[in-house]
Structure formats: C-alpha cells, structure tokens
Amino acid sequence: EEDLSRSSLGNPGKGLVNGIKTNPGSSSPKGGLPVPAGPPIYVDLAYIPNHCSGKNTDPEFFRRVRAAYYVVSGNDAANGEPSRTVLDALLEGKAQWGENLQVTLIPTHDTEVTREWYQQTHEKQQELNIMVLASSSTVVMQDESFPACKIEF
C-alpha cells in the first residue's frame, strides 16, 4: 500500500482505469479489463458502450449494469454497429438477474440488425420483461430530422 500511494503521488492516475488498479502485464477477454467482483449496480439509464459494438460489451456487462433503460445508438453496419452479439448478450445477461424488472431498450436508429433481432427474439424479450421502444416522434432541426424518444423518471 505504501509503494502504491508513493507512486500515485507523482502521477495520481497511473495504474488506474476508472478507479480500478490495473496490471499492465495481465490479459483479459477482448483486450479490456476484467470486471472486478462485486454486486450488480442499478441505474435508471445506461448507454451501451461503443455504439453497441461487440468489441467490449458482453453478457457480463448486462449482468452487472442493471438499467431500467438501455440506449443503443449504433448505425454503422460496416463496423458491426449495432452488434447482434451485444443485443443477444442483453438477453443472456438479463436472464441471470433472478428478478423480473422491466427493461426498456431504446434504439436511436432503425437498423436491419435491430429489426431482425426484435422479430427473432420477441418471445424471449417478453419472457424477460424487455420492451423495445420505437419512436413515432420526429425532431426537426435546421436541415436535419431524426426520431426522438421522451423518457420520464
């Protein structure tokens, strides 16, 4: 502890990522940090990281980050965004919660991946109390228009 605090004085963030001590020599799945042991965290709203890319979001994310609303913002099929693997990971992670809390998935774009996933997994979504929110509202700003969702807490 003394060595850690002494080395931290010169560079307070050295060896820490999001407040977690890292080990540069260790390897973990997908090149990210291993998820530290601990209880799940409950939040109202969570943005699925990296535009819902499968690069660093897996079932463990959804087992640990339990949100009433998840935002999916991917709209780049060439880069695998949104990723079908991540959407399936939501189902897998939520199935392990042990409680049937309502979850709402909010896609910010209407993509072929989300449409196919919705249709192919609709029964599983209902079983897990997951609702996919579709927007019927459009916001128009200058020369741009886009779908919009209103969330109230």
Structure, briefly:
The protein has 153 residues and is of the alpha/beta class.
Q: What is the 3D form?
A: globular
Number of DSSP helices?
A: 6
Question: Kindly, what is the distance between the CA atoms of the first and last residues, rounded to a whole number of angstroms?
Answer: 42 Å
Order of adjacent strands in the largest pleated sheet? 3-4-5-6
Proportion of residues in helical segments = 25-40%
Strand content: 15-25%
Biggest sheet descriptor: 4 strands, parallel
Number of DSSP strands? 8
Overview of the structural elements:
The chain is α/β, with parallel strands linked by helices and 153 residues long. The protein has a domain at 41-140. 30% of the residues lie in helices and 24% in strands. The strands form three sheets. Strands 3-4-5-6 form a four-stranded parallel beta sheet. It has a two-stranded antiparallel sheet with strand order 1-2. Strands 7-8 form a two-stranded antiparallel sheet. The longest helix has 12 residues, at 84-95. The protein is globular and about 45 Å long.
Characteristic terms for this protein:
4-stranded parallel sheet, 24% strand, 153 residues, two-stranded antiparallel ribbon, disordered N terminus, actin binding, microtubule binding, globular, alpha/beta
Helix-strand layout with pairing:
Layout: H1 2-10, E1 16-17, E2 20-21, E3 41-47, H2 49-52, H3 59-64, E4 65-72, H4 84-95, E5 103-107, H5 112-120, H6 122-127, E6 130-132, E7 137-141, E8 144-148
